[in-house]
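Q: Here's a chain of 180 amino acids. Please give me its 3D structure as tokens.
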Amino acid sequence: LDFSKIEAGKIEFDKTNFNLVELIERLHKTFKVKTEEKEIEFNIITDDTLPEFLRGDQVRLNQILNNLLSNAVKFTEKGSITLSVKVINRDMDTITLLFAVKDTGIGIAIDKVDSVFNSFQQESSSTTRKYGGTGLGLTISKQLVELQGGKMSLESEKNKGSKFSFHITYDIPARTMVEK
């Protein structure tokens, strides 16, 4: 449905206050269970200067991170997964955050890196057979980032792991708005 909305230019983004710290804690709890089952280390690294509250689309941020973390768990058999959040720019009213999901999974061959963002595409048919999926998660995530003025990138090495990162600028709500 999201894919269809994006294709039709009908996707809308909410501008509401949300607690970034709680969002990250919920993701940590959700994925900690999955990583413990696979005996994979799961780390969260956050910038000390992160504000507790932001103004933007919490549902879409959660969707993007959920997608990237799900893929990391799916394609990592041993080692670790790390979610990091870093402030890359800040002024009085806005903040640009860099989110990154890094894993020690199967990685992606250098000649296939660009194609994993294409609709219904995975690195290879053997990847689809072994791990499942539609090949839409990364496409949707990348488009959701770009429609919010951000950019998504990928660094990967076959059999060594992948790092998906993206940045989005959010409003910083006034203190009185947060308390309401």
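Q: Can you summarize the key feature?
A: Confidence is low (pLDDT under 50) at residues 120-124.
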